[in-house]
Amino acid sequence: MKKWAASAVCVALWAGVAALASAQAPAQGQGIYTCVDKYGRRLTADRPIIECLDREQRELSPSGVTRRQIGPSLSDSERTLLEAQQRKDSEERVRVIEERRRERALVARYPDKAAHDVERNAAIQMVDEVTATAEKRMVELKNQRKAFDLEMEFYKKDPNKAPMTLRRKIAENEDSVAELQRFILGQEQEKRKVHQKFDVELAKLKGLWEALKPVATTPGAAATLPSASPASR
After folding, report:
1. 147 assigned to some structural domain
2. Among residues 183, 204, 170, 79, which one has the least CA distance to residue 131?
3. Other CB atoms closer than 10 Å to residue 46's CB: what's the count?
4. Rounded-to-integer distance, Cα 91 and Cα 191, Å
5. Which 8-state DSSP code applies to residue 158?
6. How many domains does the chain have?
7. Residue 187 falls inside a structural domain
8. What is the pLDDT of residues 157-172, one digit of tens each?
9. Tens digits of per-residue pLDDT, 170-221?
10. Are 57 and 36 in contact (CB under 8 A)?
11. Is residue 121 part of a domain?
């Protein structure tokens, strides 16, 4: 609602200034409006300049003679609202430009689905390789634990008599296994994130690829083209 209200105010202000200028303009010719905006740029137009509604404008005759001066047309609150709307419009233009730049870069990187699939598979393979290394280490830890358990067989009647070094090794082994299990679980989550990222990209790319497809010429379209005249042959 705020956006529509701001736009409505801007339109109303513009319409009011334009109507006033039109009513007061001399009938002997189209006027030229000029001003210096808040950024120091000199602007000219064939109607009151919206960027200078908060400052003085001059209306010139076609010969360059000043016909009249138009003072600021906005109150402080109106000027604040207009400037806020102009900032918002400027930010939106920047956002759109940046979005278009990212889209061009994305299409340049992935000209088709095959190229996108190659990079997806490479990313997944990297995660799988890290997971495989962790799983290999898990096997080593389990074999190590089996050896510790064999040693503990001598102390199964009274485990407290087992050497402190052996008990410490078993505790460290358990900690390592638990940490490795968390890591492997994290890699599974990472793989899901990779697929989600590429799925989002692919959905966007499909629209961009479709937009870049050449327009197909329908059969018989050539027949509708005007034939060259004998003089031009």
Report:
1. yes
2. 183
3. 9
4. 36
5. -
6. 1
7. yes
8. 888 889 999 999 999 9
9. 999 999 999 999 999 999 999 999 999 999 999 999 999 999 888 655 555 4
10. no
11. yes
